[in-house]
Amino acid sequence: MKRSNATGIGGRGAILAAVIFWTAWGHAQTPSLEEIIARVQQQYDTHSDFKARFVQESLVKSLGKKQISEGAVSFKKPGKMRWSYQKPFKQEIISDGKTLWNYRVEDKQVMVGQMSQAVQGRVPSTFLAGLGNLQRDFQARWMKEPSPKEPYSLELTPHEIQGSLEKLFLLVDRGNYQILEARIQDVMGNTTQIRFSQIQFDNRLPDSLFTFTPPQGVEVFHLPGSPPAGGPGK
C-alpha cells in the first residue's frame, strides 16, 4: 500500500473511535463520576443514528510522526458507520455492521475485511453492535477535577487489556452529555485524538449510506476472512 504507518494508525483509530462513539450518545452541584457515565450511556441509548464533522490527530510514537485529518462521519445502529476523510487525502472507511471497506480514493484501492476482525480482541468490540456498557467494561476516574465552565474530563481503562487499546480519554459536554472529544492510547504509546462538531441526531440515515460498491478500475484486496469474491466488495 502507498500510505504511511500514520495512515494505518489513523484508520484503526477511526474504528476504535467508531466503537467508542457507539457506547455513548448522546447544574449547581457536579454529578458523581458514576452519574456522568450513566448519563452519557443514556444519551447513546436514546438515538438511532447521528452524523458529525471531525478533526483527527494521529501520532505514531516510534516515528514521532503526526498526521491531522478531517472530514465527516455517520453512524447508525446496529454497528453501521461511514468515515469520509476529506483532508489531507480522500479516504472512505465504511461498514454495514459486518463487512468493512477501506477505500483509498487516490490510490484506487479498497481493502475488504470483516468488521468483527477489525475490532477482535478489544474490550469495546461489542459497542459496535450497540451492546457496550461503559460502567461494565471500563474503570473510570477523573482526568482532572471538574470545573463549572469546562467539559467533564474522563479517563477510562478497560478492566481487561485486550488488543492494542490501553486507555480512553473523553471530554463530555456538561449540558447534554455528548462526547466532544475522544483520545485513544494504545499499548505502544500511539494516540488518536478525534474532536467532533456539528453533531446531529436521528437523521433517518439510509442503509445504503453504509454499503460500498467499488468503482470501475479500483483494485480490490480481500483480507483473510473477508467476504468471498462475488459478495460484498466484489
Concise description?
The chain has helices at residues 5-23, 33-45, 115-118, 134-137, and strands at residues 49-60, 65-76, 80-87, 91-95, 99-104, 109-114, 138-142, 152-158, 165-172, 179-186, 191-201, 219-222. The chain has 234 residues and is an alpha+beta fold. A hairpin with a 4-residue loop joins strand 1 and strand 2 (65-76).
Question: How does this structure look, described?
Answer:
With 234 residues, the protein is of the alpha+beta class. The protein has a single domain, classed as Lipoprotein localisation LolA/LolB/LppX (outer membrane lipoprotein receptor (LolB), chain A), CATH 2.50.20.10. It is built from four helices and twelve strands. A twelve-stranded mixed beta sheet has the order 7-8-9-10-11-1-2-3-4-5-6-12. Strand 1 and strand 2 form a beta hairpin. The longest helix has 19 residues, at 5-23.
List the helices and strands and how they pair.
Elements: H1 5-23, H2 33-45, E1 49-60, E2 65-76, E3 80-87, E4 91-95, E5 99-104, E6 109-114, H3 115-118, H4 134-137, E7 138-142, E8 152-158, E9 165-172, E10 179-186, E11 191-201, E12 219-222
Parallel strand pairs: 6-12
Antiparallel strand pairs: 1-2, 1-11, 2-3, 3-4, 4-5, 5-6, 7-8, 8-9, 9-10, 10-11
